[in-house]
Amino acid sequence: MVVYNFAAGPAIMPKEVIKQIQEELPSLNGSGMSVLEISHRGQDFDRIIADAEADLRALMAIPDDYAVLFMQGGGTGQFAAMPLNLAGQHRRIAVLDSGQWAARAAEEAPRVGVVADVLASTKAQKYTQLPTLPAPLAQDYDYLHICANNTIEGTAYWQLPTTGTVPLVADMSSNICAQEYNVRDFGAIFAGAQKNLGPAGVTVVIVRRDLIQPMPGLPTVFDYNLFDRKHSLYNTPPVFAIYALGLVLKWLRANGGVAEMQRRNRVKSGKLYDFLDQSKLFHNPVAADVRSLTNIPFMTGDAQLDDAVIHAATAAGLLNLRGHRSVGGLRASLYNAMPLAGVDALVDFLHDFEQHN
Length: 357
Ligand SMILES: *Cc1c(COP(=O)(O)O)cnc(C)c1O
Fold this sequence. Notes:
The protein is of the alpha/beta class.
Protein backbone atom coordinates (compact mmCIF):
# COMPACT_ATOMS: atom_id res chain seq x y z
CA MET A 1 0.00 0.00 0.00
CA VAL A 2 1.17 3.54 -0.76
CA VAL A 3 1.45 5.50 2.46
CA TYR A 4 1.79 9.24 3.01
CA ASN A 5 3.43 10.57 6.14
CA PHE A 6 1.80 13.80 7.34
CA ALA A 7 3.89 14.00 10.53
CA ALA A 8 4.97 17.44 11.79
CA GLY A 9 8.54 16.28 12.54
CA PRO A 10 10.58 14.20 12.10
CA ALA A 11 8.83 14.25 8.79
CA ILE A 12 8.64 13.08 5.21
CA MET A 13 11.80 13.26 3.10
CA PRO A 14 12.02 13.04 -0.70
CA LYS A 15 11.73 9.43 -1.93
CA GLU A 16 14.66 9.97 -4.31
CA VAL A 17 16.87 11.01 -1.39
CA ILE A 18 15.94 7.95 0.68
CA LYS A 19 16.78 5.77 -2.33
CA GLN A 20 20.14 7.45 -2.83
CA ILE A 21 20.98 7.03 0.85
CA GLN A 22 20.08 3.34 0.59
CA GLU A 23 22.28 2.85 -2.47
CA GLU A 24 25.25 4.75 -1.07
CA LEU A 25 25.02 3.53 2.50
CA PRO A 26 27.46 0.57 2.31
CA SER A 27 30.14 2.47 0.41
CA LEU A 28 30.45 6.22 -0.03
CA ASN A 29 32.08 7.23 -3.33
CA GLY A 30 33.52 3.73 -3.78
CA SER A 31 35.54 4.12 -0.58
CA GLY A 32 34.37 0.80 0.89
CA MET A 33 33.27 2.78 3.97
CA SER A 34 29.80 3.87 4.93
CA VAL A 35 28.97 7.52 5.55
CA LEU A 36 28.16 6.20 9.03
CA GLU A 37 31.84 5.32 9.48
CA ILE A 38 33.82 8.06 7.77
CA SER A 39 35.90 10.67 9.54
CA HIS A 40 34.56 14.18 9.76
CA ARG A 41 38.14 15.30 8.96
CA GLY A 42 38.39 13.36 5.68
CA GLN A 43 38.10 14.64 2.12
CA ASP A 44 34.72 13.02 1.49
CA PHE A 45 33.09 14.83 4.38
CA ASP A 46 34.88 18.06 3.54
CA ARG A 47 33.09 18.06 0.22
CA ILE A 48 29.75 17.05 1.77
CA ILE A 49 29.69 19.93 4.24
CA ALA A 50 31.11 22.47 1.78
CA ASP A 51 28.45 21.49 -0.77
CA ALA A 52 25.70 21.68 1.86
CA GLU A 53 26.72 25.22 2.76
CA ALA A 54 27.06 26.29 -0.88
CA ASP A 55 23.71 24.76 -1.82
CA LEU A 56 21.91 26.41 1.09
CA ARG A 57 23.53 29.75 0.21
CA ALA A 58 22.35 29.37 -3.37
CA LEU A 59 18.82 28.25 -2.42
CA MET A 60 18.22 31.10 0.02
CA ALA A 61 20.46 33.72 -1.66
CA ILE A 62 22.37 34.09 1.62
CA PRO A 63 24.71 37.12 1.43
CA ASP A 64 28.43 36.70 2.13
CA ASP A 65 28.32 38.69 5.36
CA TYR A 66 26.08 36.00 6.89
CA ALA A 67 27.66 32.87 8.40
CA VAL A 68 26.03 29.48 7.78
CA LEU A 69 26.52 27.09 10.69
CA PHE A 70 25.63 23.45 11.24
CA MET A 71 25.07 22.87 14.94
CA GLN A 72 23.44 20.36 17.29
CA GLY A 73 20.87 20.80 20.03
CA GLY A 74 17.83 21.34 17.78
CA GLY A 75 15.58 24.37 17.63
CA THR A 76 15.38 24.19 21.40
CA GLY A 77 19.15 24.53 21.66
CA GLN A 78 18.92 27.72 19.64
CA PHE A 79 16.42 29.22 22.09
CA ALA A 80 19.47 29.38 24.40
CA ALA A 81 22.26 29.76 21.83
CA MET A 82 20.71 32.78 20.10
CA PRO A 83 20.57 34.99 23.24
CA LEU A 84 23.99 33.66 24.31
CA ASN A 85 25.50 34.86 21.02
CA LEU A 86 23.46 37.94 20.15
CA ALA A 87 22.27 39.47 23.43
CA GLY A 88 25.63 40.40 24.97
CA GLN A 89 25.02 44.13 24.72
CA HIS A 90 21.60 44.84 26.30
CA ARG A 91 20.90 41.34 27.64
CA ARG A 92 17.32 41.92 26.67
CA ILE A 93 15.29 40.52 23.80
CA ALA A 94 11.71 41.07 22.63
CA VAL A 95 9.42 38.21 21.65
CA LEU A 96 6.14 38.05 19.75
CA ASP A 97 4.20 35.18 21.27
CA SER A 98 2.60 33.53 18.26
CA GLY A 99 2.43 30.01 19.66
CA GLN A 100 4.04 27.40 21.79
CA TRP A 101 7.44 27.47 20.09
CA ALA A 102 7.70 31.25 20.47
CA ALA A 103 6.67 30.95 24.11
CA ARG A 104 9.41 28.37 24.63
CA ALA A 105 11.99 30.81 23.26
CA ALA A 106 10.78 33.44 25.72
CA GLU A 107 11.09 30.94 28.58
CA GLU A 108 14.58 29.81 27.63
CA ALA A 109 16.32 33.21 27.37
CA PRO A 110 16.13 34.01 31.12
CA ARG A 111 17.80 30.66 31.84
CA VAL A 112 20.95 32.08 30.24
CA GLY A 113 20.64 35.46 31.91
CA VAL A 114 18.78 37.38 29.20
CA VAL A 115 15.49 39.17 29.85
CA ALA A 116 12.74 38.27 27.36
CA ASP A 117 9.89 40.79 27.06
CA VAL A 118 6.80 39.31 25.46
CA LEU A 119 5.43 42.40 23.72
CA ALA A 120 2.28 40.84 22.28
CA SER A 121 0.55 37.49 22.35
CA THR A 122 -2.35 35.82 20.59
CA LYS A 123 -2.67 33.12 23.22
CA ALA A 124 -6.13 34.45 24.14
CA GLN A 125 -7.18 33.81 20.51
CA LYS A 126 -5.76 30.29 20.79
CA TYR A 127 -2.99 31.43 18.46
CA THR A 128 -5.29 31.46 15.43
CA GLN A 129 -3.93 34.93 14.59
CA LEU A 130 -0.47 36.45 14.70
CA PRO A 131 0.52 39.07 17.28
CA THR A 132 1.58 42.53 16.10
CA LEU A 133 3.79 45.04 17.88
CA PRO A 134 1.58 47.28 20.05
CA ALA A 135 3.89 50.28 19.60
CA PRO A 136 7.09 51.13 17.72
CA LEU A 137 9.75 48.75 18.99
CA ALA A 138 12.04 50.22 21.67
CA GLN A 139 15.55 50.28 20.22
CA ASP A 140 17.35 48.89 23.25
CA TYR A 141 16.66 45.25 22.51
CA ASP A 142 19.37 42.94 21.17
CA TYR A 143 16.79 41.44 18.82
CA LEU A 144 13.13 40.64 18.27
CA HIS A 145 12.36 36.92 18.15
CA ILE A 146 9.56 35.58 15.98
CA CYS A 147 8.54 32.06 15.02
CA ALA A 148 8.15 32.37 11.24
CA ASN A 149 5.88 29.35 10.96
CA ASN A 150 3.94 28.04 13.92
CA THR A 151 4.12 24.29 13.46
CA ILE A 152 1.52 23.47 16.09
CA GLU A 153 -1.04 26.21 15.43
CA GLY A 154 -0.72 26.49 11.63
CA THR A 155 0.10 30.19 11.16
CA ALA A 156 2.95 31.79 9.20
CA TYR A 157 4.37 35.29 8.79
CA TRP A 158 3.74 36.67 5.31
CA GLN A 159 4.51 40.20 6.49
CA LEU A 160 7.36 40.78 8.88
CA PRO A 161 7.19 43.17 11.85
CA THR A 162 8.95 46.51 11.47
CA THR A 163 11.84 46.59 13.92
CA GLY A 164 13.82 49.76 13.08
CA THR A 165 17.46 49.05 13.84
CA VAL A 166 16.70 46.08 16.09
CA PRO A 167 17.62 42.81 14.31
CA LEU A 168 14.86 40.33 13.61
CA VAL A 169 15.56 36.70 14.54
CA ALA A 170 13.34 33.99 13.09
CA ASP A 171 12.78 30.39 14.07
CA MET A 172 12.14 28.86 10.62
CA SER A 173 12.23 25.26 11.77
CA SER A 174 9.04 24.34 9.93
CA ASN A 175 9.08 26.54 6.82
CA ILE A 176 12.71 27.08 5.86
CA CYS A 177 13.00 26.56 2.08
CA ALA A 178 9.22 26.08 1.90
CA GLN A 179 8.28 29.75 1.81
CA GLU A 180 10.29 32.57 0.28
CA TYR A 181 11.92 35.08 2.58
CA ASN A 182 14.64 37.65 2.00
CA VAL A 183 17.55 36.74 4.29
CA ARG A 184 18.53 40.43 4.44
CA ASP A 185 15.32 41.10 6.40
CA PHE A 186 16.75 39.05 9.27
CA GLY A 187 19.68 39.32 11.63
CA ALA A 188 19.56 35.57 12.13
CA ILE A 189 17.54 32.53 11.13
CA PHE A 190 17.64 29.06 12.61
CA ALA A 191 15.95 25.75 11.88
CA GLY A 192 16.12 22.22 13.17
CA ALA A 193 16.46 20.03 10.07
CA GLN A 194 13.85 17.41 10.89
CA LYS A 195 10.80 19.31 9.68
CA ASN A 196 11.67 20.35 6.16
CA LEU A 197 15.39 19.80 5.50
CA GLY A 198 16.30 16.26 6.44
CA PRO A 199 16.61 13.92 9.40
CA ALA A 200 16.89 14.98 13.04
CA GLY A 201 20.33 15.77 14.45
CA VAL A 202 21.50 18.92 12.72
CA THR A 203 20.38 22.52 13.19
CA VAL A 204 21.02 25.23 10.63
CA VAL A 205 21.96 28.73 11.82
CA ILE A 206 22.26 31.69 9.44
CA VAL A 207 23.57 34.79 11.17
CA ARG A 208 24.86 38.22 10.15
CA ARG A 209 28.39 38.19 11.50
CA ASP A 210 28.50 41.78 12.77
CA LEU A 211 25.55 41.13 15.10
CA ILE A 212 27.36 38.52 17.17
CA GLN A 213 27.92 39.89 20.69
CA PRO A 214 28.48 36.91 22.96
CA MET A 215 27.53 36.67 26.60
CA PRO A 216 30.26 35.70 29.08
CA GLY A 217 30.40 31.97 29.75
CA LEU A 218 29.17 31.02 26.28
CA PRO A 219 29.78 27.24 25.90
CA THR A 220 32.04 26.37 22.96
CA VAL A 221 29.46 24.03 21.32
CA PHE A 222 27.13 27.03 21.02
CA ASP A 223 29.75 29.59 19.97
CA TYR A 224 28.71 31.06 16.61
CA ASN A 225 32.08 32.82 16.03
CA LEU A 226 33.98 29.63 16.78
CA PHE A 227 31.74 27.53 14.53
CA ASP A 228 32.08 30.12 11.77
CA ARG A 229 35.89 30.10 12.02
CA LYS A 230 36.01 26.29 12.10
CA HIS A 231 33.41 25.82 9.34
CA SER A 232 31.19 23.91 11.80
CA LEU A 233 34.03 21.43 12.48
CA TYR A 234 35.12 22.54 15.92
CA ASN A 235 34.05 19.18 17.35
CA THR A 236 32.49 16.10 15.75
CA PRO A 237 29.47 17.19 13.76
CA PRO A 238 26.45 14.95 13.09
CA VAL A 239 28.02 13.48 9.95
CA PHE A 240 25.09 11.42 8.71
CA ALA A 241 22.52 14.17 9.35
CA ILE A 242 24.61 16.72 7.41
CA TYR A 243 25.11 14.22 4.56
CA ALA A 244 21.34 13.59 4.33
CA LEU A 245 20.56 17.32 4.61
CA GLY A 246 23.02 17.91 1.78
CA LEU A 247 21.16 15.44 -0.44
CA VAL A 248 17.86 17.17 0.33
CA LEU A 249 19.39 20.54 -0.61
CA LYS A 250 20.58 19.10 -3.94
CA TRP A 251 17.07 17.69 -4.48
CA LEU A 252 15.63 21.15 -3.79
CA ARG A 253 17.95 22.75 -6.33
CA ALA A 254 17.17 20.09 -8.94
CA ASN A 255 13.45 20.69 -8.38
CA GLY A 256 13.44 24.42 -8.97
CA GLY A 257 14.56 25.85 -5.63
CA VAL A 258 12.59 27.73 -3.00
CA ALA A 259 10.42 29.76 -5.39
CA GLU A 260 9.21 26.58 -7.06
CA MET A 261 8.72 24.90 -3.65
CA GLN A 262 6.59 27.85 -2.50
CA ARG A 263 4.55 27.61 -5.71
CA ARG A 264 3.99 23.87 -5.22
CA ASN A 265 3.24 24.35 -1.53
CA ARG A 266 0.60 26.96 -2.39
CA VAL A 267 -1.05 24.52 -4.75
CA LYS A 268 -0.92 21.66 -2.22
CA SER A 269 -2.10 23.65 0.79
CA GLY A 270 -4.67 25.48 -1.36
CA LYS A 271 -6.31 22.19 -2.23
CA LEU A 272 -6.67 21.27 1.42
CA TYR A 273 -7.77 24.75 2.55
CA ASP A 274 -10.33 24.93 -0.27
CA PHE A 275 -11.76 21.60 0.81
CA LEU A 276 -11.86 22.57 4.49
CA ASP A 277 -13.48 25.96 3.77
CA GLN A 278 -16.41 24.40 1.93
CA SER A 279 -16.74 21.35 4.22
CA LYS A 280 -19.68 21.12 6.60
CA LEU A 281 -17.84 18.63 8.80
CA PHE A 282 -14.24 19.86 9.02
CA HIS A 283 -12.87 23.32 9.59
CA ASN A 284 -9.53 25.12 9.93
CA PRO A 285 -9.55 27.76 12.69
CA VAL A 286 -6.74 30.00 11.40
CA ALA A 287 -7.26 33.55 10.10
CA ALA A 288 -7.09 33.39 6.28
CA ASP A 289 -4.27 35.92 5.83
CA VAL A 290 -1.83 34.13 8.17
CA ARG A 291 -2.33 30.51 7.15
CA SER A 292 0.71 28.28 6.95
CA LEU A 293 1.74 26.47 3.78
CA THR A 294 3.30 23.61 5.71
CA ASN A 295 1.17 22.84 8.78
CA ILE A 296 -2.61 22.73 8.57
CA PRO A 297 -4.66 21.94 11.67
CA PHE A 298 -8.32 21.01 11.23
CA MET A 299 -11.08 19.41 13.25
CA THR A 300 -14.72 18.38 13.33
CA GLY A 301 -15.38 19.92 16.73
CA ASP A 302 -16.11 16.48 18.19
CA ALA A 303 -13.05 14.76 19.69
CA GLN A 304 -14.50 11.27 19.26
CA LEU A 305 -15.26 11.89 15.62
CA ASP A 306 -11.74 13.30 15.13
CA ASP A 307 -10.43 10.02 16.57
CA ALA A 308 -12.55 8.05 14.13
CA VAL A 309 -11.18 10.10 11.21
CA ILE A 310 -7.61 9.51 12.34
CA HIS A 311 -8.18 5.76 12.68
CA ALA A 312 -9.81 5.41 9.29
CA ALA A 313 -7.14 7.59 7.68
CA THR A 314 -4.36 5.48 9.18
CA ALA A 315 -5.99 2.33 7.78
CA ALA A 316 -6.04 4.05 4.39
CA GLY A 317 -2.29 4.80 4.54
CA LEU A 318 -2.65 8.47 5.54
CA LEU A 319 -0.35 8.50 8.54
CA ASN A 320 0.37 10.74 11.52
CA LEU A 321 -2.57 13.09 11.16
CA ARG A 322 -3.22 13.48 14.88
CA GLY A 323 -3.08 17.15 15.87
CA HIS A 324 -0.83 18.42 18.64
CA ARG A 325 -2.40 17.60 22.00
CA SER A 326 -2.77 21.31 22.82
CA VAL A 327 -4.88 21.98 19.69
CA GLY A 328 -6.58 18.61 19.27
CA GLY A 329 -8.20 17.42 16.07
CA LEU A 330 -6.00 16.68 13.10
CA ARG A 331 -2.99 18.31 11.49
CA ALA A 332 -1.60 17.70 8.03
CA SER A 333 2.01 18.73 7.54
CA LEU A 334 2.67 19.35 3.86
CA TYR A 335 6.41 19.88 3.71
CA ASN A 336 8.39 20.19 0.47
CA ALA A 337 8.74 16.42 0.11
CA MET A 338 4.97 15.78 0.27
CA PRO A 339 3.81 15.14 -3.30
CA LEU A 340 0.57 16.59 -4.64
CA ALA A 341 -0.71 13.01 -4.88
CA GLY A 342 -0.54 12.79 -1.07
CA VAL A 343 -2.73 15.87 -0.68
CA ASP A 344 -5.15 14.59 -3.32
CA ALA A 345 -5.39 11.28 -1.45
CA LEU A 346 -6.06 13.12 1.81
CA VAL A 347 -8.73 15.40 0.35
CA ASP A 348 -10.44 12.44 -1.37
CA PHE A 349 -10.41 10.54 1.89
CA LEU A 350 -11.85 13.46 3.90
CA HIS A 351 -14.50 14.05 1.26
CA ASP A 352 -15.55 10.37 1.39
CA PHE A 353 -15.57 10.41 5.16
CA GLU A 354 -17.83 13.45 5.16
CA GLN A 355 -20.24 11.82 2.69
CA HIS A 356 -20.61 8.82 5.00
CA ASN A 357 -20.90 10.74 8.25
C1 LIG B 1 9.95 21.46 16.25
C2 LIG B 1 10.18 22.90 16.48
C3 LIG B 1 11.10 23.36 17.43
C4 LIG B 1 11.84 22.43 18.34
O1 LIG B 1 12.80 21.75 17.65
P1 LIG B 1 13.72 20.66 18.38
O2 LIG B 1 14.69 20.36 17.29
O3 LIG B 1 12.85 19.50 18.75
O4 LIG B 1 14.34 21.29 19.56
C5 LIG B 1 11.29 24.71 17.55
N1 LIG B 1 10.63 25.58 16.78
C6 LIG B 1 9.73 25.18 15.86
C7 LIG B 1 9.02 26.19 15.03
C8 LIG B 1 9.48 23.83 15.68
O5 LIG B 1 8.60 23.43 14.75
